[in-house]
């Protein structure tokens, strides 16, 4: 296996791992949005939303890195 394939495998793995974390964050936020809301529960729900948004940013960054590596491999830019 060459270094280019190894790099792509690592970037793809980072991206799919980030997506899995994002899905978990969305499900957690959904669980909190589905209950009876006390002030504490609303605060936890809002915190879950901010955590989901943070993970989403990591997914977007991992996706961009993987796409950029694919462009370099297939299109040399």
Order of helices and strands: HH
Percentage beta strand: under 5%
C-alpha geometry: rod-shaped
Alpha carbon gyration radius: 17 Å
Largest sheet: none
Number of helices: 2
Short description:
The protein is mainly alpha-helical.
Q: What does this 3D model show about the protein?
A:
- It is a single chain.
- The protein has helices at 3-33, 39-75.
- With 77 residues, the chain is an all-alpha fold.
- The chain has one domain (3-71).
- Helix 1 packs antiparallel against helix 2 (39-75).
- The model has no long low-confidence stretch (mean pLDDT 93).
How would you summarize the topology of this molecule?
Layout: H1 3-33, H2 39-75
Helix pairs in contact: 1-2
Observed structural traits:
77 residues; mainly alpha; 88% helix
């Amino acid at each position: 296996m060459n270094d280019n394939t190894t790099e792509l495998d690592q970037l793809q793995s980072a991206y799919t791992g980030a997506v899995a974390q994002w899905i978990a964050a969305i499900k957690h936020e959904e669980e909190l949005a589905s209950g009876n809301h006390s002030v504490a529960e609303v605060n936890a729900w809002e915190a879950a939303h901010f955590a989901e948004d943070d993970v989403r940013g990591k997914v977007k960054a991992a996706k961009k890195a993987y796409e950029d590596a694919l462009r370099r491999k297939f299109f040399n830019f």
